[in-house]
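G.,

No rush on this.
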Amino acid sequence: MTRLLTVDNLRVRYPTRTGVIDAVRGVSFTLGRERLGIVGESGSGKSQTGRAIMGLTPPHGIVTADKLDFSGIDLLSISARERRSLRGKRIAMVLQDPKYSLDPVMTIGKQITETLRTHEKVSKAEARDRALAMLEAVQIRDPGRVYELHPHEVSGGMGQRVMIAMMLIAGPELLIADEPTSALDVTVQLDVLKIMDKLVSERGMGLIFVSHDLRLVSSFCDRVIVMYAGKVVEELKASELNTAQHPYTRGLLNCMPVIGENRHPLPVLDRKPEWAA
């Protein structure tokens, strides 16, 4: 398997008035042209890991790693300009909430075509045609109408699909998807997953899929990383998630509802201090 991304001992720290917060603590993994799921509770460091790879950590954050390599490029040593040339074209990230990610004063069409024309020399007409095709591909009805709308004029689910279209239009080699289907209906969710699956299988794209949905990750991804308190506590094949051995992973699985069983109230995850050590 061709190695696309290598993350070795990644750390993200935030100095505060009361001390340093370690958001990511020594995370290591590799990614080929496959689907890698990252799961864990809110605050476990999943999104911070993705943002560090993208170079989107806030300026006051401190990112270090023994190795952070994308396709032979040292992401920690390249300039800000080189980072910008990678973002959107070779590495893209679907952020969790479109309300805070889309520009409220630009039309949806202009935002999508801007992404494409930043990285490819295409005419306005071709950019529009490709943007409309991508909006249609993410199951947006009447893409011509949506193309002319502003973000506040569409629903949250539609905004999420717009974000996905914007990140996929330039054909990235690596896509980091942070809860990309959380605001979507089940049927649309499946359509979006099919698009991502097609990009992985046909174009050889690498996908990091961040999610709270363990069932979705177990059926969609190839491998799964389980994070707790900024650390990786377990890594295994997605198909073997139900047989995970770490007590934290077992606790997450045990908290999920089971159809046909009376589990009220649901079990509460019992966190152990040694898991964060």
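When you get to it, here's the other one too:
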Amino acid sequence: MPENDADIINEIRRASRSLIRELGLLNRTLAGTELSASFVHALVDIGNAGTLTAKDLSDNLLLEKSTVSRMVKKLISRGDLTETPSPTDNRQKDLQLTEQGQETLGEISKYAEVQVKNAISPLTNSTRQQVLNGLEIYSKALKRSRLSPGNNKEWKSPATSKVVEGYSTGLAGCIIKMHAIYYNNFANFDEVFEATVARGLSEFIPRIKNTKNSIWYAENDHKVVGSIAIDGEDLGDNIAHLRWFIVDKEMRGSGVGKALFLQAINFCDAQGFSEIHLWTFKGLDAARKLYESSGFVLTDEYQGNQWGKQVLEQKFVRRLPSKI
């Protein structure tokens, strides 16, 4: 048995990882469907409620509104959801399952019921109740921690930090400057690197309105402190290219980088790209941990000098569901 707080924390983390794996949450799809976990949870929540707005769904799933909006569009295009104006608020639309959506939810429920039944059938009634009580207690504890004013959230300063999707006047210059300063310190990159970043951005920015492309930036006290982009066109074959991921030195360790990264990953999941590719340099260990924790795998490593200096370049790939 764990003897101190550190041991208990490690054991809870270990048990949580095991639970996530056994539930299949690391798979590209969930519950015997072609849908990712967020899509499955959306259908379950809407089905249980009967009718939900996109805002309700965002609050329930703890996902950004832009992510939920894209997910709703995908589910409507699949034929699982219908969207109608709310009779009580013209600014909102009610989401309901279609007949096909009900059938999809039925398949999800059958899969989950069998999974749980097979797991608990050998257990005594008292042990089953212990399992239920433990899950409920831990879930509520996590929620209390998340909502606590003093908790360490993703943001360094929740009052002044935010992630914004889309292009804003002057954004390209901010992204170029952050890259130039950081990589000059990292690998002594000079004006050749800065010009290369500028050319790439100048080619990409006019294409942002394509639904397969998007860009996000983090803002703190009205200053751009991070960026990330998904280019869904340049690699072809339904492959997303993750580009221009950078966080200002002052905000590293604050959670801003992770928030930006998750926005990009959720966008790719909602778009249904088959893979995400990214290129980086050996030695950026904090970023590599973030990539690998999100399912990216190092697939290639080679010496390159396209940036004006010879460095060891790395390619990471994350495979995604080809269908949503």
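The two ends are 43 Å apart (CA to CA). The first strand starts at residue 52 and ends at 53.

Enjoy the weekend,
O.
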